[in-house]
Design goal:
Shape: elongated
Order of helices and strands: HHHHHHH
Strand content: under 5%
Mean pLDDT: 88
Number of domains: 2
CATH class of the largest domain: Mainly Alpha
Helix content: over 70%
CATH topology of the largest domain: 434 Repressor (Amino-terminal Domain)
Distance between the termini: 28 Å
Low-confidence stretches: none
């Protein structure tokens, strides 16, 4: 997984931890909610200034957005990543993924 996606997931986790909707955080840092959504989805990379603004708005250290190792081992986040990946697939790919997972996980 690329760093931009991991960064975005950490921003989203911090935002949800503060019980803020995406529009509320976007307003606090003076950007559009669509832009923030793209950052959270790993589609856009924020400027240094925006990283600092996000951290201030969320009352966290900017370093938490770069703790990629913590995120990759978080079971909840891993499940969310799998769900997002599967949501993009058609029936044929979902069936294929199901067969692979069953072969790997069932005794």
């Amino acid at each position: 997984m690329i760093e931009a996606t991991l960064f975005g997931e950490l921003v989203r986790a911090a935002r949800k931890g503060r019980r803020l909707r995406i529009g509320q955080l976007a307003e606090k840092v003076n950007i559009g909610s669509k832009h923030l959504g793209r950052i959270e989805n790993g589609e856009k990379q924020p400027s240094f200034e925006l990283v600092v603004a996000l951290a201030k708005a969320l009352d966290v250290s900017p370093e938490i957005f770069f703790r990629f190792d913590d995120l990759q081992s978080d079971q909840t986040v891993l499940k969310e990543q799998l769900v997002r990946l599967l949501e993009k697939q058609d029936s044929k790919e979902l069936n294929k993924a199901g067969r692979v997972l069953r072969a790997m996980l069932e005794p």
